[in-house]
Structure of 2-oxoisovalerate dehydrogenase:
Amino acid sequence: MSDLQKLTIGKAINLGLRRAMEEDPKVLIMGEDVGKLGGVFRITDGLQKDFGEQRVLDTPLAESGIIGTAVGLAVRGFRPVCEIQFEGFIFPGFDQIVSQVAKLHYRTQGKVKMPIVIRVPFGGGIGAVEHHSESPESLFSHIPGLKVVSCSNAVDAYWMIQQAIKSDDPILFFEPKKLYHSGAMKAEVDTEGTPDALFKSRVVREGTTATVVAYGPSVKVALDAATAAEDEGKSLEVIDLRTLSPLDLDPVFESVRKTGRLIALSEAPSETSLTSEIAARVQQECFYSLEAPVLRVTGFDTPYPPAKLEEHYLPDLDRVLHTVDRSLAW
């Protein structure tokens, strides 16, 4: 039986959190202003009113305290969901995440599980000040013991947050904040449907000229570029990674063997990044299928700029199309 609702990404996450809390009384939400305010992006709006202050907790402004408390709760059988208000605020909790959250299951030989979800609004495009528009996902994808995922649409947002909460492994859940309330990103979500597997990438548009792989907020850019390229007689295949660690690159390999070309797209800086890893793995697995080097379209290797410059920093449709032309000219 289907139950279709047209949702923004933000509303889909809200409904996913609500359903997880309804199904399991051990699910708790904690973070700065997540209760009465509903979070700065209103993603947890209404949850404290319906589930109470003991399950939706407004915390002090202390990310290390939020994560450390979540570790203690997880040890005692709870499933805490922590909200980091902006991605740039996560670093006071970095030590807790990489030294405790990522290691306790291994350190205890499986006796202690860490069913913790850390929600991280990330990326630019909202005209914010310093430390509010960064893309630190590569840092966490490098840490053994952590799993890292990122939704790009409302359907995935609804299902992936629930799947992450049900996982016994710690998961960082990166959310494209500039798309939270975008009307253009509204989609019909079957809230009684069957979701795709959490740690699998997906071909979201088929094509034959070149492959574009992206995740999070960059998937929309890739799809827009594919639509524009079609007017020029080019057929771009677009793949949404969905999971950043572990990387599911089999669909990427299969696509590259067909198209012979790959463009890896991300807002993050290019040095030692997820796009670097994708490029290395593809040349290793698909060397004889490549008609051109793997090319990347990324943010620049600088701190995120002031808001008036971010449109020049963020990868856009024109940069993707230019890179496709470079690949085809090789």
Observations:
- The chain has a mean pLDDT of 97.
- The longest strand covers residues 262-269.
